[in-house]
Specification:
With 244 residues, this protein is mainly α. The protein has two domains: 107 residues, 3-Layer(aba) Sandwich (Glutaredoxin), CATH 3.40.30; 122 residues, Alpha Horseshoe (Serine Threonine Protein Phosphatase 5, Tetratricopeptide repeat), CATH 1.25.40.10. The protein has a two-stranded parallel sheet with strand order 1-2. Strands 3-4 form a two-stranded antiparallel sheet. Helix 7 runs antiparallel to helix 8. The protein is globular, with a radius of gyration of 19 Å. The relative contact order is 0.10. About 3% of the residues have low confidence.
Length: 244
């Protein structure tokens, strides 16, 4: 969901939170949790929120724009997906979620032993190390471990991990974005932009990366508030530059 929707989602959550319903908001922002936290706090958000800094969700779910919405039932089954433009202020979108909440349960709920468990960053790091030890040639596991190392503050080792992946797979967008997050943490703006622009060159239709580049180059147009008019003008400018 976009940051502008957060206050409206909070109201929706307050209405439905006693209906076996939970919201998980995920910000796709390479600049990290502190940037995203400003918006959840100012909106008074009470539901869980996370940050996908490496922005690997687009690889998992196959999208290259936001906002998106997914409804997962109590059995872990995806019952609804809306890619690009999911908007709680759209009556049809809100009604689709309310209809799913009103529908009877689809079957037995997940056993507690099989329910997802969320641990500390240290536990996630250990799990990633163990998974990679069992399949050391797996690129996805290598990248997951690198991302967990970023989260735990092991940036030097994480950078080496991302570079190792790029040494074998130089078109790994996920590794390039991962490197960008490390550079941003170090205050290395130019290096971060270079990595993001390499990623965008590989996936030129990826609007998520495109907007990350804009946000790093022109933070005043994104923080503390997004300037949609500036974005529309920037799109026209960039598209005109592509024209012969």
């Amino acid at each position: 969901m976009c940051r502008e929707q957060l206050p409206v989602w909070q109201k929706f959550y307050e209405t439905h939170q006693n209906e076996n319903f939970e919201i998980l908001a995920i910000a796709m922002d390479a600049q990290g949790a502190e940037v995203a936290r400003r918006f959840t706090e100012s909106a008074g958000v009470q539901f869980p929120a996370a940050v996908d800094r490496a922005q690997g969700l687009w690889e998992l779910y196959g999208f290259n724009v936001v906002p998106n919405g997914f409804f997962v039932d109590e059995n872990g089954i995806l019952r609804y997906a809306n890619i690009g433009g999911f908007e709680v202020r759209n009556p049809e979108h809100a009604q689709a979620i309310e209809d799913l909440l009103a529908a009877p349960a689809s079957g037995a709920t997940l056993a507690s032993s099989n329910a997802p468990k969320f641990g500390s960053v240290e536990e996630a790091l250990r799990d990633a190390e163990a998974a990679l030890a069992g399949d050391p040639e797996n690129f996805d596991l290598q990248l997951t471990l690198a991302e967990r190392r970023v989260e735990s503050g092991q940036r030097e080792q994480a950078g080496q991990d991302f570079q190792a992946v790029l040494g074998t797979n130089p078109r790994s967008v996920r590794a390039l974005v991962g490197l960008a997050t490390i550079h941003l943490d170090r205050g290395e703006r130019d290096e971060a932009l270079a990595a993001l622009k390499k990623a965008w060159a590989i996936e030129p239709d990826n609007w998520i990366i495109r907007k990350q580049i804009w946000a790093v180059e022109h933070p005043e147009q994104f923080y503390p508030a997004i300037n949609p008019q500036w974005q529309r003008e920037r799109i026209k400018q960039e598209e005109s530059q592509k024209s012969p």
